[in-house]
Known about the structure:
Gyrase A, domain 2; 2 domains
Amino acid sequence: MHFTRxxxxxxxxxxxxxxxxxxxxxxxxxRRVMASPKKVRLIxxxxxxxxxxxxxxxxxxxFGEGGFxxxxxxGAVFTNANYIHTPTYTACGHATFMSGAxxxxxxxxxxxxxxxxxxxxxxxxxxxKTKLVGGREGSGMSxxxxxxxxxxxxxxxxxAGHAKVIGLSYKDRSAILPAGKRPDAAYxxxxxxxxxxxxxxxxSELPDWLKAFNRDNHCFSYFGKKWDRLLPESEYSRSDKDDxxxxxxxxxxxxxxTLNGGEEKxxxxxxxxxxxxxxxxxxxxxxxxxxIEAEKLGADDVTDLLTISFSANDLLGHAMxxxxxxxxxxxxxxxxxxxELFSYLDKKIGLDQIVIALTADHGVAPVPEQVQKLGYxxxxxxxxxxxxxxxxxxxxxxxxxxxIQTVNGNVYLDESAIERRKLDAAEVEAVASxxxxxxxxxxxxxxxxxxxxxxxxxxxxxxxxxxGFHPQRNGNLVIITQPFYFVGESATTTHGSPYKYDTHVxxxxxxxxxxxxxxxxxxxxxxxxxxxxxxxxxxxxxxxVGRILTEAIKSK
Length: 556
């Protein structure tokens, strides 16, 4: 074959181009061009304990730039997110967070409940088979009562155990339940020593980095620190004189005050006061930084999970109520604390390689004395409940100590007495329910037999109760109060109901692969886990009932 000069030049250029394409430098360039988006190195799951969704609107114009505003402006914000179960308690919400499971599926039906098998009240995370590590002597904690898997568990399975999963909080249940069944660790605060601790379920001794943290960053370093308003008093919506919550405040002093617990040197009274202050949240963020550094979270291409639950907001909220200046200021300071955390994460790992999922475990009711001025709400004595049930059953079936326990809005009846008298349990429960509904402060009293038979009315409250009912752990009766009422005389205020002030919470995603926008569709914190699973291409946690929030995931 004869080549013309033109053909030779064309062939030569082709060979040069092919050689360049196959050279190492060119291969690297092609990999850069064809590379997929950066891999998610770290999931940061954040729960703010007792943080109502309306706080984002009420206090939003006073937030800084790097905390909530960063998430609200650059993340996927779900404005109509409500828990779909009752009761709305800490353990229930934290179990839902990374599992997508309601209490009926997770088995976590309250912070604690009456266990018929052992004839005693048990905590959601108490475990007599473990010992506490790093704090006082005694039984430890574990997730052994949690049913089904979590995002952390699915990460472990998908990575052959290489993913690291750690849970942090002041409350044991808040550190343990979001981290799942087999994380690398869960650490929580021991109020008797002021140390962060764990249990033998996870490890036999604290890691060296945590021992150093407890030594060098102990909460006692905050002794004598003054908590004053972050902004001028005129920037706060209410006056101290108008704050009914002070009538029941356990702190015995008005805001601002110095953290000393009334002690000359730091002790357990100071620790209790410190735990309900914004400085506890700062302390927890310092712990999170230490954990990230020591455990090398987010340091490689295997996705890790860190869950952080801020408990101080809840402890303060119970004492002061959602319309107090303290809760207002705590929310502003939480914003600044989050800004510090996000800035650290950006510098250490890069927020473009992190996904943040933020929510709350529940809201809170207004202080009854405040809303009573508007003509509604109030307190119910627990004795009213037990007396109504006992008197009705004594009159109908004969005298017994019919009520064994009341907890979480559940009444546990003495089933041995029912069996001994050869009574029909459904009939006994129905009689008790009818008596309870004569109390003006109650709106519903569902029975165990009614729930198990699927004979609940087609109402939002009934569906919420069904989602919160586990046959082996709940009682014979589940009561629901009228709005703005709750059972208990000691707390300034509390939560637990199926009403919006308790169920409506933030759900926000931010970071790698997350779309930006505000979405008003019906959603729930139960949707967080399946959404993260879809984003990470994981199997959805086993007991999840939530949906994938497709609006949150950036289209490719």
